[in-house]
Amino acid sequence: MNDTENLSAECAVARTPGYGDLHGQCRRIEDIHLPHSSGVVLVPRCSCTCHGSTR
Which of 19, 33, 48, 52 could cross-link with 11 by S-S, CB 3.0 to 4.6 Å? Predict the structure, then answer.
């Protein structure tokens, strides 16, 4: 899986020149898991390097 596959919409657009301020509007900073499951991820966190952490 490459880096662009888990980008939020905000971070994907923020990579376009002139839209860099959109990184601050990204809210996908953690995985959202399926309730009552053991590790099933419904929505993965944004993989953009602007968030400063890696998996």
Answer: 48
